[in-house]
Amino acid sequence: MPEDKNGRLEYQAQSPDESALVSAARNFGFVFKHRTPNTITIEIKGKIEEYELLSILDFNNVRKRMSVIVRRNNKILLLCKGADNVIYDRLGPDQIELKARTQEHLNKFAGEGLRTLVLAERYLDDEFFSGWRQRQQEAALSMDGREDKLGAIYEEIECDMMLVGVTAIEDKLQDGVPQTIANLQMAGIKIWVLTGDKQETAINIGYSCQLLTDELVDVFVVDGVTLDEVEQQLRKFKESIKIINTFHPGGVYHNNIATANGGNSSTVTIENLRHNAAPPAISVVTFSAECDQIFDGGEKGATGASTTATDIEENTGFAIVINGHSLVHCLSPELEDRFLDVASNCKAVICCRVTPLQKAMVIELIKRAKNAVTLAIGDGANDVSMIKAAHIGVGISGQEGMQAVLASDYSIAQFRYLERLLLVHGRWSYYRMCKFLRYFFYKNFAFTLCHFWFAFFCGFSAQTVFDPMFISVYNLFYTSLPVLALGVFEQDVSDKNSLEYPKLYTPGLTNALFNTTEFIRSVLHGIFSSLVLFLIPYGTYKDGVSPEGYVLSDHMLLGSVVATILIIDNTAQIALDTSYWTVFNHIMVWGSVVTYFVLDYFYNYVIGGPYVGSLTQAMKEPTFWFTTLISVLMLMVPVMAFRFYFVDVYPSLSDKVRLKQRMAQIRSRQSTDVLRTPSARRARRSLRSGYAFAHQEGFGRLITSGKIMRKLPQDFAFPLGLGSSRKQHSINHQDSLNHSNNSHKHQQQVHLPGSSNGGDASPRAPCQDLDTINL
Ligand SMILES: Nc1ncnc2c1ncn2[C@@H]1O[C@H](COP(=O)(O)OP(=O)(O)OP(=O)(O)O)[C@@H](O)[C@H]1O
Ligand SMILES: [Mg+2]
To answer: Where located (predicted)?
Structure first.
């Protein structure tokens, strides 16, 4: 539809291709002026021409073409545009030379990454057309199988056409696509591109978004027409992979050894990388982070998650490009295993000329056969089925309309925001959820099992150790909000660092933060806590008498004391777990303890609960305070020792990044608020000497000066203070190894072909080496 905007014609089109074409024609002096339901008016070099519009043969993704039938000067003309292979199959005879020349142009355009459309025309005689129209109207009115019937009728008329020519439209990548893909790959996510474009265009896009690189050993192209051909091609590729793996043990084979995965997985699918301001989005990317299955025969080693990611990224191996007609066979039950086997060995998978249904089928296959978590991202109506099929559907709102957005779970405005969605929000969400769960199990086991131990001392009489009111509101009032605040606000590293170190994402892929082991650990921790919580007060108060001669060994007093220590322990525990303190966390955590005492008083004294006076009496005696202190120390010291040991000796990437973040904070705080006081100067001096030391010996000795120790969060101060320089050496060694790999990679990235096509001149270099975290 042409629209007059301030004297200039603007076009509203169903597809951005079309608006680009009519705009270009307008700029060359062929203006699409006006349109009514039955007429089209154009202006050719100032001369008005009017066409009668007889019929529109709509586009769909199966037909991959569309036509209009128009009449002018009593001649009926069919004009058709569509995908090259589809139009070529429907051309009349005797155009061999024209076809060959056009094919050359097509290849050239597609090789440059342009979206091509082939145009053709056919003059129709009146009689044939009226007969056809009759049939078309009948088919259009039929109640069942209308689509198929119309398809067959369209087929009748869209044949014997004359080739007119070919158009090519630049479909620019959106900003930041190569960078986003690189970072997501580094995060251990596997990417598949599913596009309706032709093979050459798809490969070119693959290069410009750096999914395909010159580092690849081989790019396999599957274009077989029959099942046998496709099978043979797949078999051949499998052989090549085997041979190369044998001869390049440092390459892909290396991955086989090092990939470690808990058997779970995650796959992600993506669509549309194109620029909003440019013609339409065409690419679909599928991600899969199935580390253990990606590499054939990969042994499950004992390596950690970050190692897995390193190995994935080092896999320069293979890429596979599959054509739509071959994909049909690849998705058949006979070949799907073989197909997945080869695809899993490839760093990049690109499927071209794929129909919307096939996009969904690919995802279904990955979900089913790989047991992977999939994410699909796309912007067009042709991505809707894929977005619906994937576990997580992301729609990009852009020029291709809102269908994808409406079908999706998340919608974003640009492809590059996916990085933040996954690496920041996705990661935080997982981290929060796991911490929440671990704490939740812990606190409930610690609470519940006190009754179990008490059963041994109350003759299994089913008497409860706590006040029934306490039991009812323990989870509701005293311990729910702190863990909720943790579940909402917690973050181990900042968003900036999450993006800077994509490998921080990998624990999620391997379910490292909450799994059976973690569950058992929480339960054991709960059991241990409940033992201390019950037995220490029990031992203390068993035959207890106060100095004034009051008997302290009664059930209610014991119950009150255990409950109080339990609440204090829960609070201390969540305070230790919280690494990101907001004002809400403070209110919830400390407020919970205060609430406990206030409610206990209110319930017993004001409402008149049965435990009136028990806690008050206990609190009057030093015994209570010592018991509380000893119990809390016994509960917290082992936990802290255990955590500090691991943070210090086996720091995860997240620990290291947190430390770096913390140091940066201290530095900026040092330089701003307390600059001029003598103590600040001393602190800075010690910080500096700490740094000097840290550079030589790792960060182990950094915290030896008291000033800094107070500034670090508790879970860092101790481990660092206790740090052994021996271990730090090994960490540094590992870092330097990573560094050498990484600098090698960066060097290679400079030479990537098509990086200039990315529309992303100064991408943020993916920073994934651990040694940047050096102090
Ligand atoms: N409006 C149209 N008119 C005629 N042909 C079209 C039109 N839109 C697309 N085509 C042809 O049909 C093919 C398939 O289109 P489809 O929408 O499935 O995928 P795409 O837009 O090329 O890619 P993507 O899957 O990345 O969106 C296109 O490559 C193009 O050749
Ligand atoms: Mg499209």
So the answer is: Membrane
